[in-house]
Amino acid sequence: MGYTLNFNLIWRHFDKLSGGLLLSLELALISIAIGIAIGLVLAVWYVSAGRIVRGVIAAYVEFIRNVPLILLVYLVFYGLPTVIDIAYSAQTSFVATLALYSGAYLVEVFRSGLEAVPRGQIDAGKAIGLTPWQRLLHVRLPTMMRITLPALSNTFISLFKDTSVASVISVPELTYGAQWINFNTFRIVEVYLVVTAMYLVTGYALLFALRLVERWYRTAR
Amino acid sequence: MLSQIAYALPFLAEGFALTLWVSLLVVVLSLFAGVILGVGLVYGPAPLRWAVRIFSDTIRGIPILVLIFFVYYGLPAVGVHLQSFWAAVLALTLFKTAQVVEYLRGAVASIPKGQSEAAMAIGLTFRQRLAYVIFPQAFRRFLPPWINGVTDAVKGSALVSLLGITDLMQAINQVIGRTYEAMPLYILGALLYFAVNYALSYASRRLEQRFAFIRE
Amino acid sequence: MATSSNDSPALLDIAEVSKSFGSVEVLRSVSLKVAKGEVVTVIGPSGSGKTTLLRCVNFLESYDSGSIRIDGKEVGFRDGGARQRRSERDLAGMRAETGMVFQGFNLFPHLTAAGNIMLGLTKVRGKSKGEARSIAEHWLGRVGLAHKADSLPAELSGGQQQRVGIARAVAMEPKILLLDEITSALDPELVGEVLAVVKSLAEDGMTMVMVTHEMAFARDASSRIVFMADGGVSAVGPPKEVLAAETTNERLRTFLARFRASQF
User: How many beta-carbon pairs below 8 A join chains B and C?
Assistant: First the structure.
């Protein structure tokens, strides 16, 4: 005990944390954008596909969901370049990993959303003469979005937290910034208090904003 | 290449055993802590409810990695010295406890009010109502998500490799450091984690089916 | 004494009970005495406070003023005037003196039919498992479900579940049985079997207060009918008087007219 809090050194290096936070948000945003694309395509494909395609998609989903993210991060960054001839930065590698990771979770979200679209709505679409493609675009996907929006928000928040794993391959996001200050100033308790507050405030602000978006989307038109 | 990996297998097995041991400790400890705090959250006096709410929302609001570093580097700074193994277990337990609290709250909240009322009407006291009416039903709703959430403890345990603890993740990294066979070893590791977690989620699905009849 | 139908001391004595939910007054100085062996039916439009009154009798709801006594003992508050809530243990003991059957059955889904009945007998009445089991079997037989003792509620029809609910309540040998719209959640073809059980209990002399929309049953089975409107007792008396078409009570006439219109 007898530890005296001193935040001066934290504020002196605060650019490491503020810049890190912005990068965390950026990583989460790009990853979920790609993840949504992966999730949507695979979910739509899944519900209309035969057994083999379903099996392959299910295998991808189950594999990703049951393996630690940190292992996937290592695998993509250190493992893949040893077997195929590609080179990428740590940041690109991490975004690719997190996109694949979120894609697996979002396939599930979108698939159950698509299956929750009431039969009657699809029939109504048929009745007014929409083609299958038009039904997908104008009936099934909009309804699915309404159903899945809350789950989408939650996925985004947890991806934001998952970006902390990028620190293990030295991507200078928020957790990396925290560790840098930890090792270079030894104001350990202070830096983690500040970083905890930053994650909490950002996370709950995001949640609040996303809930507003959900409400707006539910009532729009 | 294969012979090198075969040579490393006992070492990997040790790491795997440590991963399972850490996960088991975390799961058991967090079950106790989470159930106690969860009951406090649902039935406790207002100050306790607030304390548990803040604890749970804070822990669930930050990355596990930050929690792990906070505990591992922060405790010695304030004069509490734990072996890195126990610091890791403590951090993961805090994370998992917050989850258990929420599972318990959800399970209790899902039981219709009429159940307590019927229990009151036949003259059961508060403790009897919990013991004979609420908990037996809440347990069935608590179990499937809880078992499913055990996979989070196993996956989360891979982060303790960053504290120099030789769990499966760390063992794999060390063998790669010697053999340079990155891809086969990462895949082997992934398959091992997958096997454990898939078995767990399979078990939770089975349990859910088994208890399905109980749901109105 | 105006509301009592006879001179025997009241088993249940509700005196000037009032209760508000926020700014809404759901009970306005309600008084009602029920003698041993009486069957009192409470009727009235929805929102008139019938169910709230019933729930106050076993203190599932508290009330703001007045008193409710069973056999002379205040139900929810300590004896001696001060409005001090009884301890948890005391309250549980008082509640065991009344039986309650719910609209939504509220059987414990994790216990068998016999288990539902045995729970109170073993944990509240302190009976042995064997004794409790034979009491449970007796009452299941009374409600015609001896063969369903080991079935879970989910395996029973609504009417069967409600009959177990009745057996669960009466097995505790309560002084009063409270029945809260016990047939409202049932399919019409299952109502009869449940009402038959209630009727046989009435014939055995069980004191009952029930809230129901089954007018024909109320007329045939009750010793008295209480008509509630806007949280107060608007009319009370023998079925023939209260349900008479030529009543001068305006609210009652409207209520009955609407009822007859929907019945036929």
Answer: 78
Looking at chain B, list the stretches that DSSP marks H as alpha helix, in order from N- to C-terminal side: 2-43, 46-61, 64-77, 84-109, 113-121, 126-128, 135-157, 168-179, 182-210
* Distance from C-alpha of A57 to C-alpha of A47, rounded to nearest angstrom: 11
- CA dist C259 and C264 (Å) reads 9
- Give me the residues paired with residue C229 across strands: C232
Share of chain B above pLDDT 90, in %: 74
Chain B contact for C62 (CB, 8 A cutoff): no
pTM: 0.83
Let me know if residue A2 belongs to a domain.
Answer: no
| Residue A202 maps to a domain | yes
Q: Touching check for A175 and chain B: CB below 8 Å? A: yes
Within an 8 Å CB–CB cutoff, is residue B142 touching chain C?
A: no
Tell me yes or no: is domain B2-214 CATH 3.10.20.30: no
- The pLDDT assigned to B215 comes to 45
Has residue B214 got a pLDDT over 60? no
Q: Residue C125 — φ and ψ, nearest 5°?
A: -85, -10
Instruction: Calculate the average pLDDT of chain C.
Output: 89
- Per-residue model confidence (pLDDT) at position A2: 63
Number of separate domains in chain A:
1
Please report whether residue A84 resides in a domain. yes
| Sequence spans of domains, chain B | 2-214
Instruction: Kindly report, residue by residue over A173-205, the tens digit of the pLDDT.
Output: 999 999 898 888 888 888 899 999 999 999 999
C residues 91..120 contacting B (CB < 8 A)? 92-100, 102, 104, 106-110, 119-120
> With 70 as the cut, is the pLDDT of residue C5 above it?
no
